[in-house]
Amino acid sequence: MKDLHLDQQLCFAVYSASHAFTRFYRPLLAQLGVTYPQYLVLLTLWERDGMSVSAIGERLLLDSGTLTPVLKRLEALGLVTRARSTIDERQVLVRLTGQGQSMRTVAEGFPARILGASECSGDELDALRRALLDLRHNLDRAAA
User: Fold this and answer.
1) What value, to the nearest 5°, has the Cα angle with vertex 77 and ends 71 and 82?
2) What's the chain's Rg over C-alpha atoms?
């Protein structure tokens, strides 16, 4: 029964590709001194600084129990600050520090490194990204 061979499983292809990304990113993120989840938070804040913890969690598909330790570590590293909103005290806003903002310059070179290592064209990677996002959306909808 060929359909149960490991190499035929889409889930394993995605899983193993995720691990390959992690290995590839490790030396890049070492330049910043952050982990991959911390990097994702920085990416989110480089897009829009001053987001609430809940908005960051929604953007990254993370619950607060997972996100809060990441934010605390980024704060301890001096890359972000967390403060209660003056408009709604229930919300905690996260802002980049100068140091956190300046790391963007180093990270701007990362996509070109991924492109080069992938040996794919930019169009091929963009199509793959779109297909994976569609797949995630469809699986989330089916699981709901």
Assistant:
1) 40
2) 18
